[in-house]
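Entry 0007
Protein: SGNH domain-containing protein
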Amino acid sequence: MSAVPPSPRAPRRPRARGSAALAVLLVAVLAAVAAVAAVAAVTVADGRGVARPRCAGAAARVPGHPCANRALRTVAAPSPEDALLVPDEPCTVVLPEADPDPCLFGRPPGRPAAATVALLGDSHASHWRAALAVAAARSGWQGVSLTKSSCPFSYASARVAPEARVPCHDHNRAVVAYLTAHPEIRTVVVSAHAGARVLHPAGASPFATKIAGYHAAWAALPASVRRIVVLHDMPIHPLRTAGCVDAAVAAGRPPGTTCAVRRRGALLPDAEAIAAARSGDPRLRVVDLTPFVCDAARCFPVVGGVLVNKDTDHLTRAFSASLGPYLLEALRPLVAPG
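Output (structure tokens):
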């Protein structure tokens, strides 16, 4: 079925999220990695024609089939400083004053969509947009981003400033209304910051309150949503990791292993994933890609020469995109055709 129909009112001129200048910076950073790895074969790693060195990013830690490229051993791209300047994957806003403000990505212009997939949640959902854009481009899916920073898709009250709490409630209800008005969206992908806090009644467990909030939000989704895919949150890294990575690269040491952190402290219990596992809703599935950044004991800040996090807890756009082919493998059998 075709992409999401336009609103009855004439939309304003679409604008792209993300800065063109910063996009150029990202391309330059990846080009630098490619130059370092000139001795290795370069292949197209995603559906958008982006060439990457062999074994770059998530490809280095494919479960059961790890890949090594010596040219990337002491590389970390982008650098921790540059990573902070690169926004999440761009998308095109079609209703800039609406709530939610749907932002489109994935399917090449002029081609019918094989399916339409919505991305819901807070900034820990937004950082997956680069991976989902790769999966969508390869599969001909239309992606619709309906995310809002600090607002997980939950009916629990986030422990945020009071002036931000009501907008989160309103946003999540607007998301449900939007999905109800667009029954061609049959698959939603959700993710949220595992460390986010919620308000809870006296005597109630904060964790149980979070789980109940997710269950309530999913129950509110229309029957036209046939699949709810929960992406397990990724590990956090302490602030000192950025300095460690810079020092390791400058000294010619492998930053991934030199600056690795204990898995136990880096991977927080993910209430959203646990809520999905406990739910009896047959629409729910959990996709866990943490093996691409962690082993049984450690989590790595650099994988395959690509910096994993741009700050303590958000994926870099480059590493998120490198996860795209593997996210597609997990999603392909789950995405309901439109």
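Curator remark: The chain has twelve helices and 14 strands. Residues 1-16, 18-47 have pLDDT under 50 and may be disordered.
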